[in-house]
From TrEMBL:
GO cellular component annotations of the record: membrane
Organism taxonomic ancestry: Eukaryota, Metazoa, Chordata, Craniata, Vertebrata
GO BP terms, alphabetized: fatty acid biosynthetic process
Protein name: Fatty acid desaturase domain-containing protein
Organism: Phoxinus phoxinus (Eurasian minnow)
Pfam families xrefs: FA_desaturase (PF00487)
Composition-biased stretches (Basic and acidic residues): 1-10
């Protein structure tokens, strides 16, 4: 892995408060400087670049669904498997890329439409509570990235599972776990919100079931099995990507968190581009995760566009720009599973940037 972050800044704890204030101001200026460069790039971009490309990919996923339902009704194995693939890929595009962009309000400039898309993608398509999803992802994970106990990607930590089960078998249960967890997340929400979530999740689930029965002509058990297979098709890389990009990197305590630019450059990692995952999960979850954590309001296409600006800036300013391969991270997790998933990770002490 390149650019392993230093455990301690060069200024360390040896300088006085005035020097630390200067360094703090400098870090603040760095983030402002980078934000200005990124904003210039956004302003110079067309609507197509800012939202059009990603909206078109999501639209294409919905347009492919009728073909998927028809193919799943075929008695020929090849066509049936193609239908399964079409529906699995479309489901991943809609429920991973779509829900992620919708949770950040990146699909529309209008707050009302952004809210509508968040409910549609997260609740109808993703079978989860939009309020709980935004709270967990945007308000906790993004706001408190790698802060222990707040945004440490701890939701998929199950240290009681053997490493092979944790990495390769347990993720397959995500389609069943998601609505169960969603029910638990309803606690504390208003009766109106609970009713909306229950109705939306049921509409999404039963419309897919109904179409598999009526259009594809599948039996009750076959329709449920196809739904499980489609929904679980990308759950392994989904969980892998989720843990690979944060766990094992610098962790911070809530009491002494560093400035934002330091927090994100030390606690986030980019994976290489991958044709399948770029389309299904989106660039912001794969090769532009650092950019996404620095500028979460950007669409996938804009994250990719500002990537050279961000990487060059961070390298020039001697800040980490962490990148590693999928197989390399998988090896790391497999070999250091106990250390990374069972014991509390060490807190990175970035003294001088508080
Ligand atoms: Zn995000």
């Amino acid at each position: 892995m390149k650019n392993i972050p230093e455990k301690r800044s060069e200024s360390g704890g040896l300088r006085g408060p005035a020097a630390r204030d200067d360094e703090c101001a400098e870090r603040e200026t760095l983030m402002m400087e980078l934000t200005r460069l990124v904003q210039e790039s956004v302003r110079a971009s067309s609507w197509w670049e800012r939202r059009g490309v990603d909206c078109s990919i999501l639209t294409a996923a919905f347009i492919s669904l009728p073909a998927g339902f028809v193919l799943l009704g075929s008695s020929q194995m090849m066509y049936f498997l193609l239908g399964l693939l079409v529906m699995g890929v479309a489901h991943a595009v809609i429920t991973v890329k779509g829900t992620h962009l919708a949770s950040h309000g990146a699909l529309s400039e209008s707050p009302a439409w952004a809210h509508f898309w968040a409910v549609f993608f997260i609740e109808v398509c993703g079978s989860f509570s939009a309020r709980a999803g935004v709270q967990a992802h945007v308000k906790m994970h993004h706001a408190h990235t790698n802060v222990i106990g707040l945004g440490d990607s701890s939701t998929w930590k199950m240290p009681f599972l053997p490493r092979s089960v944790y990495l390769f078998i347990a993720p397959l249960a995500i389609p069943i776990i998601t609505p169960v967890v969603a029910v638990g997340q309803l606690k504390g929400q208003s009766p109106l919100q609970i009713m909306r979530t229950v109705v939306c999740v049921c509409v999404g689930f039963f419309s897919q079931y109904y179409l598999l029965r009526c259009v594809s002509g599948l039996s009750c058990s076959s329709a449920l099995l196809v739904m499980l297979l489609c929904r679980a098709m990308f759950s392994l890389p989904y969980i892998h990507v989720n843990i690979f990009q944060h766990i094992g990197l610098s962790m911070f305590s809530a009491a002494s968190r560093p400035k934002r630019i330091y927090q994100m450059t030390h606690g986030v990692l980019n994976l290489p581009r991958n044709p399948v995952l770029d389309w299904t999960f989106g660039h912001s979850l794969i090769s532009c995760h650092v950019e996404h954590h620095l500028f979460p309001f950007l669409s996938d296409n804009m994250c990719l566009k500002v990537k050279p600006i961000v990487s060059q800036f961070l390298k020039e300013k001697k800040l980490p720009y962490q990148e590693d391969g999928y197989a390399s991270r998988l090896r790391l997790f497999f070999h250091r599973y106990q250390e990374l998933m069972v014991f509390a990770p060490p807190i990175t002490d970035l003294v001088g940037v508080q």
